[in-house]
Design a protein that fits this description.
It is built from 13 helices and twelve strands. The longest helix has 16 residues. It starts with 7 loop residues before the first helix and ends in an 11-residue tail after the last strand. The chain folds into two domains: 143 residues, Rossmann fold (3-Layer(aba) Sandwich), CATH 3.40.50; 139 residues, Rossmann fold (3-Layer(aba) Sandwich), CATH 3.40.50.2300. It is elongated. By secondary structure, it is α/β, with parallel strands linked by helices.
Length: 351
């Protein structure tokens, strides 16, 4: 076994290519024309030999610019607006400029966003979008660019990460409704092809089980499969339509836990349209705390700490970029959500 640091020359020798080819492949140089099997041979050698990029080279590169990227899933989602606002504030204070890229719920665009980041030689990146395939993310392990992943385990990619404890967030919402006396609780889900959709549904079902409340399939509302695969079905209109379906049940729920605040506000629209009262007839709780206090009635919700996550992600990234040693810890931080009680939840109506 070879002793000491593995170099690009070592990788090149193992892969039977020129060192410059290894360097260009590691830096995702799309202008490089080589056979696919050559690329695979290089990546295999990198992984098997445990190659790590030279920290000094990274420091030299990152001093050339103060531009960092933030990759999101879409520009209209209030969740990303909070992250961007607070990350940009921290970046501005530290003398950095933020460039925003959007995957728009498209895995292929996710791959292109990463290519853009590597091609432009940015100092670092925050990956907030869930629409970047695992196979694409696997390549960042061998990049020396500092990155912070949101809502993903960063350790398996050799990067920093910030995770929101969405199981606990869903539990907070459910425990609040159950403590008020609700047992007929519905859930309007987000995309079940996303980690967040699955985690919040898992928290919903677990709370029912813990309290001995039967799970009722008709109380679990989601968008059609095609929408879920696209990561949509999380709009105010979707919340409105799902709530109408719940109101048409022979035994309608007395409370609703919505995937996010946008869906919850759509549910509110449907309830008020049917001339029912909130929270006297039906309680509604959202998730996110994005615009909840500015609506009527003011929405009870779970604060996912997006403002804190955005600021923290920028701080972690910039600290890694400016690390004098050129090294940074592959840190993973778990953020705990908080319950925010406002005006849309109350005990169930007496029967």
């Amino acid at each position: 076994m070879r002793k000491g640091r593995v170099t690009i020359k070592d990788v090149a020798q193992a892969a039977e290519v020129n060192p410059s080819v290894v360097s260009r492949i590691l830096n995702h140089d799309e202008t490089l024309v080589v056979r696919p099997e050559t690329r695979e041979r290089v990546w295999d050698a990198v992984q098997q030999m445990g190659y790590r990029p030279n920290a000094t080279a990274r420091s030299l590169r990152t001093r050339k610019n103060r531009l960092i990227a933030i990759v999101i899933s879409g520009f209209l989602d209030p969740y990303f607006a909070l992250i961007l606002e607070n990350a940009n504030r921290v970046a501005d204070q530290r003398g950095y400029v933020v460039g925003v890229l959007s995957t728009e719920s498209d895995d292929q665009r996710g791959a292109k966003c990463l290519e853009t980041i590597f091609d432009t030689g940015m100092a670092g990146a925050v990956l907030a979008s869930s629409y970047i395939e695992e196979s694409t993310l696997a390549r960042i392990r061998y990049s020396d660019m500092p990155m912070v992943l949101l809502r993903r385990n960063g350790w398996e990619f050799g990067k920093m990460s910030i995770m929101e404890d969405e199981n606990s967030g869903a539990a907070l919402a459910m425990e609040h409704l159950i403590s008020l006396g609700h047992t007929r609780i519905a859930h309007i889900a987000g995309s079940l092809y996303s980690r967040s959709g699955l985690k919040r549904l898992e928290g919903y079902r677990k709370a029912l089980h813990v309290h001995g409340i039967p799970y009722r399939a008709e109380y679990m509302q989601e968008s059609d499969e095609a929408q879920c695969r696209l990561g949509v079905g999380q709009t105010r209109l979707d919340g409105y339509r799902a709530m109408l379906r719940l109101l048409d049940l022979d035994e309608r729920p007395t409370a609703v836990f919505a995937f996010n605040d946008t869906i919850a506000l759509g549910a509110v629209d449907a309830v008020l349209e049917r001339a029912l009262r909130i929270p006297e007839d039906i309680s509604i709780i959202g998730y996110g705390n994005t615009m909840s206090e500015f609506n009527f009635p003011k929405l009870t919700t779970v604060d996912g700490q997006m403002a804190r996550i955005g600021a923290l992600a920028a701080e972690m990234l910039i600290n890694a970029i400016e690390s004098e040693s050129g090294e940074y810890p592959h840190e993973e931080i778990l953020i705990q959500p908080e319950l925010v009680v406002r005006k849309t939840t109350a005990p169930p109506p007496e029967t």
